Amino acid sequence: MTGSLPKRLLSYLGLAVVAGYCLAPFYWMAVSAFRRPQDQFDNSIVPTQWSWENFHAVFSGDNGFGRALLNSVIVAGCTTALTLLIGTFTAYALARLDFRFKNAVLGLIVATTMFPGISQLVPLLKLFTDIEWINTYQAMIVPSLGFALPLSVWLLTAFFRQLPRELEQAAMVDGCTRGQAFRKIIVPLAAPGVFTTAILTFIAAWNEFLIALSMVNKKEMQTATVAISKFTGVSGFDQPFGTQMAAGVVVTVPLIAVVLVFQRRIVAGLTAGGVK
């Protein structure tokens, strides 16, 4: 018992160091957001005087941040919905159907994530220019699908593989078609994996910056991440650090809230397919 106490304290200390390292940037962003504009270069741990001016400035003037938030919701929501729709059927086929080179197909799908996003940017930009997709939602949604689908297929395939085939067979004996057995039996049982995939996909699409910056040059179509990078100060030449920090808090807090509320489902979804 005496030997286990120092080990536990050391473990807690390690967790505290990692948590502090990960949370320090967000803490500094939040603290800077609550400083007054004239105090934006103050390096104190807490603001000398708390202020909401930066948050008011985010939604005022010519920033267009409200429309940018709406665009982010549309892009991230559509990307998540399409990823779940396509990824669920693809993962189910890879988990249940028997055909040659099935593992090779899954490996090929996962291997697509190894290509840097920047290497695909120029071909996509040329393609979307030719088909007149520039400054459209689909120009941001379709490339995001290419990055989100491999992860979703990998996660959901592991989930479907762990579900006994006897469940579908029993449902089909009771009169269900294969499609009904999939919809009424398999999908509800795989809900933790589907939910985890949805959360991870939405976060990735919400935080996406490079594609949205390259495919959109109209202000009314830009997403929140792009809008933050293009904030201008009062004169148009000064750097609005406080406003950008406040916008970062507005964009980040909903994601943190979702993760904290559904953290158990996320952990269950990431680990359920790992052990039989």
Automatic annotation (TrEMBL):
<feature type="domain" description="ABC transmembrane type-1">
    <location>
        <begin position="69"/>
        <end position="262"/>
    </location>
</feature>
<keyword id="KW-0472">Membrane</keyword>
<keyword id="KW-1133">Transmembrane helix</keyword>
<protein>
    <submittedName>
        <fullName>Carbohydrate ABC transporter permease</fullName>
    </submittedName>
</protein>
<keyword id="KW-1003">Cell membrane</keyword>
<keyword id="KW-0812">Transmembrane</keyword>
<feature type="transmembrane region" description="Helical">
    <location>
        <begin position="241"/>
        <end position="262"/>
    </location>
</feature>
<feature type="transmembrane region" description="Helical">
    <location>
        <begin position="12"/>
        <end position="30"/>
    </location>
</feature>
<feature type="transmembrane region" description="Helical">
    <location>
        <begin position="137"/>
        <end position="160"/>
    </location>
</feature>
<feature type="transmembrane region" description="Helical">
    <location>
        <begin position="181"/>
        <end position="206"/>
    </location>
</feature>
<feature type="transmembrane region" description="Helical">
    <location>
        <begin position="68"/>
        <end position="92"/>
    </location>
</feature>
<dbReference type="InterPro" id="IPR000515">
    <property type="entry name" value="MetI-like"/>
</dbReference>
<dbReference type="InterPro" id="IPR050901">
    <property type="entry name" value="BP-dep_ABC_trans_perm"/>
</dbReference>
<feature type="transmembrane region" description="Helical">
    <location>
        <begin position="104"/>
        <end position="125"/>
    </location>
</feature>
<comment type="similarity">
    <text>Belongs to the binding-protein-dependent transport system permease family.</text>
</comment>
<dbReference type="Pfam" id="PF00528">
    <property type="entry name" value="BPD_transp_1"/>
</dbReference>
<dbReference type="InterPro" id="IPR035906">
    <property type="entry name" value="MetI-like_sf"/>
</dbReference>
<keyword id="KW-0813">Transport</keyword>
